[in-house]
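Anyone able to model this chain together with thymidine-5'-diphosphate?
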Amino acid sequence: MTATGHFISFEGIDGSGKSTQARLLADHLRGQGHDVILTREPGGSAGAEEIRALVLQGDPDRWSAETELLLFTAARRDHLERLILPALASGKIVICDRFADSTRMYQGLSRGDLRASVDALHSLMIGREPDLTLLIDMDPVEGLARAKGRQGSEERFEDFGTDLQIAMRAGFLALAKEFAHRFTVIDGARDMEAVAQDVTHTVANHLVS
Ligand code: ADP
Ligand code: TYD
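re: yes, here you go
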């Protein structure tokens, strides 16, 4: 735990509305006068954004799960060193669209059981969890339809299809139980404003606690 800043992450399946809610929360908190850094993973620093292109573009079988785990962890380490930790040390609120819980799910669970490797690498190279994690939960079919509605080339994971998204949803809900002290589950299958209201309420409670 840092003595000063607050580290808030958004997690959930593709298309659940994480990026939308992260942006709305950042706007809301800035409106209240907070100093906010809005960032995302993979990416968030120059080097990590380069790794992002490697992991999110191309064939679904471009990397083995193990190689992918190393790439995501390398990107996170750079992001943490160069952006997140300095921002927290100077008292800012860092809002991160995905963090290590995504690795626990996507690399830890999607192709074989790599969760032990994910956790070992995390404690060796990252060693930091968010103070608060907002899990935007929703039906995977609806989430995938939303995600597919976006145009773009970063579809390696979305190309894995609905079965993976169903496993991810269950996995994220299990993670929320495992790390109950920092997770709040938010129903994402509602209009953006209703979801945002729950998000701001949860964050307000966290900031005063
Ligand atoms: P994620 O970051 O979780 O993949 P996004 O925030 O990018 O999700 O949202 C995916 C798509 O769904 C976007 O086109 C976005 O405008 C739309 N969207 C986000 N939240 C909602 C919502 N509550 N209801 C309907 N559509 C939404
Ligand atoms: P993101 O841009 O958040 O996608 P979306 O907006 O569709 O949710 O993340 C891109 C993809 O990267 C997403 O499918 C999940 C995957 N991912 C991992 O596999 N491992 C990780 O550690 C992270 C951070 C993301």
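The mean pLDDT is 92.
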